[in-house]
Amino acid sequence: MAPITLELIHRWANIIKSKPTIIKDTFAYGSYTHLTNLLNNILEINHKPDISKSWFQGFHFLYNNQLNLKLGSDGYDNYQAPVNEQGEQLYLRRLWARGELDFYKTPQVDSPVEVTESLKSVRVIDETVLVSILRNFTSDSQELLRESRTLTYTNELYTANENFHKLDKEDTRDEGPTFHISSVDLLKYSMLTYNLHKIHIDANYCRSIEDLPNVIVHGPLQVTLLLYYFAIKHPELTPKNFRYRTYAPIFINDEVTIQIDPISEHEFRLGLFNKESGKVYIQGKLSSTTTTL
């Protein structure tokens, strides 16, 4: 690894901030179908979502993804990762930390979709860097969705945290289905999203390099599972905003339960947790509006 200084991080951030990235794609029916089948298989249900509402359920994660032109040692594209002047990576590991989604509309099938990615912020905490990227999706100049995602970059290897975040006592635990995610599920999602990050597909890499006990579930897949099941349970509501953060990794075959707790008529707390221990993997607050026909 290259030596890291605060000056080096700031210099990299200024370069990235001055060069927004534009990625073009097409909203294709095939990817929608494949993801629907995957989600139904994980949740053990038979549901076909309205494709015109799919971008309110996390399906946007399928499109306008990284081009995988400059891969890091972990297999993921380094185009937004902190690097030095020679393009050498500064951090061994990257983790999905938090995000926010503002929903506007779903594009027409087979229509062009363009995303403009720009650096929102860089925060240095001790030996760790949090990088937030803003992604604006448009189609024919119409705004579709706005996403903010934050990744944590670190050289610290994974260690299990026994003081994990638990469900608050006031949570009503309005439980959805309990399920397990397999390595095959992760491989399918990685293929659908053009994601070569080894922590999702290579168990040997996880154990030998990052000290992870096994491969872990993608952050976007967790978000999609929450939004997908919310749409099934509350078809009368349309999401407006979802802000979330991750607390612990989900490993393959972990027992996971969906939490959808009402806060008010149009606000809900969504999360994934382990029913036995109360461990929270991911949790966030969703605001919605009444669906208009």
Walk me through what this model shows.
With 293 residues, the chain is of the alpha+beta class. It contains 5 helices and 10 strands. Strands 1-3-4-5-2-7-10-9-8-6 form a 10-stranded antiparallel beta sheet. The longest helix is centred in the first third of the chain and has 15 residues, at 29-43. The protein starts with 5 loop residues before the first helix and ends with a strand. The model has no long low-confidence stretch (mean pLDDT 95).
Compact summary:
One of its GO terms (cellular component) is mitochondrion. It comes from Candida viswanathii. This protein is of the alpha+beta class and 293 residues long.
Write the layout of secondary structure elements.
Blueprint: H1 6-17, E1 21-26, H2 29-43, E2 93-103, E3 112-125, E4 128-139, E5 142-154, E6 175-179, H3 183-192, H4 203-209, H5 219-233, E7 237-246, E8 256-264, E9 267-273, E10 280-290
Antiparallel strand pairs: 1-3, 2-5, 2-7, 3-4, 4-5, 6-8, 7-10, 8-9, 9-10
Helix pairs in contact: 2-3
Core attributes:
293 residues, alpha+beta, Thiol Ester Dehydrase, Chain A, 2 domains, 10-stranded antiparallel sheet, Hydroxyacyl-thioester dehydratase type 2, mitochondrial, HotDog_dom_sf
CATH architecture of the largest domain: Roll
Write down the overall mean pLDDT: 95
The H/E string reads HEHEEEEEHHHEEEE
- Tell me the number of helical segments per DSSP (H or I, 4 or more residues long): 5
Sheet with the most strands? 10 strands, antiparallel
